[in-house]
Amino acid sequence: MKFRALWIAVLPALVLAVSVHAAGITPSLYADTAPNVYGSPNWTPWWNSTKADVANGTFVNMRSGAHPGTIYFEPEEEIVYSTGDLGRRLHWIYWVPGKTIAELQQCNFQVNWMVDWDGVDYVYDWTIYDVDEAILVGGIPTNGWIQPSSWVNYDKDGDSNPDGVIGTFGVAWWADDDLAEPKSTDGNPFNETDSADVAALAQMIRQYQTHATGYIRWNCGSGWQYQTLRLQVVPEPGTMLLWLSGLAAPAFALWRRRK
Q1: Pair 192, 178: CB distance under 8 Å
Q2: Least crowded by CB within 10 Å, which of 40, 70, 75, 126?
Q3: Secondary structure of residue 164 in the 3-state scheme
Q4: What is the CB neighbour count within 10 angstroms for residue 49?
Q5: Among candidates 183, 171, 173, 182, which has minimal Cα distance to 207?
Q6: What is the DSSP string of 239-258?
Q7: How is the chain split into domains, by residue range?
Q8: 199: CB partners within 8 A, 6+ apart
């Protein structure tokens, strides 16, 4: 079997969060499920509202999903497709108050994401334009990092002076027509994707994936500093207790991914 995934970048209990400050950099990192940036008319309203609330400190993690105020997400909240409403994807949002993009570039500010599948962690490799197994040191990937290109100098109070830098990066699985019956009828595997295909992919995610993690890092001359936010897949109700206790084993094989 194969699977396809889309990636965008320019990337309480059970949450892994590390917050550190260096050279006056005091970032915040949040997460949500968002409309598909590639074509959804709902993307711009979501992003405008998110920027304002993050910068004002009123944003709530996963507020657009089934479990607002938590770090849990349903598989359907990280699946995109080429039909209908185009689906949703996970997004991490970072806010660095009091800084400009130029200043963050001097500190080599970078972003990254990591997902697990069948017990293996993966990041996006920008040298091969495909996912690759994560190389971890102390639980942090050393590969897959990239400078953002979706960040902006953000003016939150309307005085024409930027109050900080805000940006987003995200990841999603891509559903196609051949995941469930009826399969593609015209040789194009994407133009007939329906709810059955999405449900089939969601079921696979529940079996094979447990988390999705967003990272930011910067180095202003005194070594790398990191901030991390891990999200957890909500599994099938029958396996919730095993999953929470760490006893549910990852399942089966990884579908190959492509951009």
Answers
A1: no
A2: 126
A3: strand
A4: 13
A5: 173
A6: GHHHHHTT-SPP-S-PPP--
A7: 4-244
A8: 180
